[in-house]
């Protein structure tokens, strides 16, 4: 089995992502999409900014960092109105019902810095 090389990229400090907040970072190293970083109930989650409704993916925010619905309970694709669970990435409303966002690995340093391991393009299908 061939391993897929990943690169770590600095996103921000942990205290720069508040509870029920989401921000976009990137895209990194030729990737077509940004990384969405969000916090819910104190836990950080990272997702690829790509709605699974179309095979090519569609960016979810209609303006900078506008990834959450008005109640800040779900990630939202503003192109389709789809709602996604923040912790699982599962679509619970909209044209991609039952599909999921692509999770992205993150790491937290001892200094509370957040890094992302960007997925290889082969993993983003």
From TrEMBL:
It comes from Rhizobium oryziradicis. GO terms for molecular function: 2 iron, 2 sulfur cluster binding; metal ion binding. It holds the Pfam family Rieske. PROSITE patterns: RIESKE. The keyword GTP-binding does not apply. This is (2Fe-2S)-binding protein. Residues 9-96 form the Rieske domain. CDD domains: Rieske. Keywords: 2Fe-2S, Iron, Iron-sulfur, Metal-binding. Coiled coil: none annotated. The keyword Iron applies.
């Amino acid at each position: 089995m061939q391993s897929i090389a990943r690169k770590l990229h600095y996103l921000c400090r942990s205290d720069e992502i508040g509870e029920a907040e989401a921000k976009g970072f990137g895209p990194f190293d030729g990737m077509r999409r940004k990384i969405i970083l969000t916090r819910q109930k104190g836990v950080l989650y990272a997702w690829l900014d790509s709605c699974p409704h179309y095979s090519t993916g569609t960016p979810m925010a209609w303006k900078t960092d506008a990834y959450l619905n008005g109640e800040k309970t779900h990630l939202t694709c503003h192109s389709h109105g789809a709602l996604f669970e923040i912790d699982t990435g599962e679509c619970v409303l909209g044209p991609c019902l039952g599909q999921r966002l692509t999770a992205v690995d993150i790491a937290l340093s001892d200094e509370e810095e957040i890094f992302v391991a960007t997925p290889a393009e082969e993993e983003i299908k």
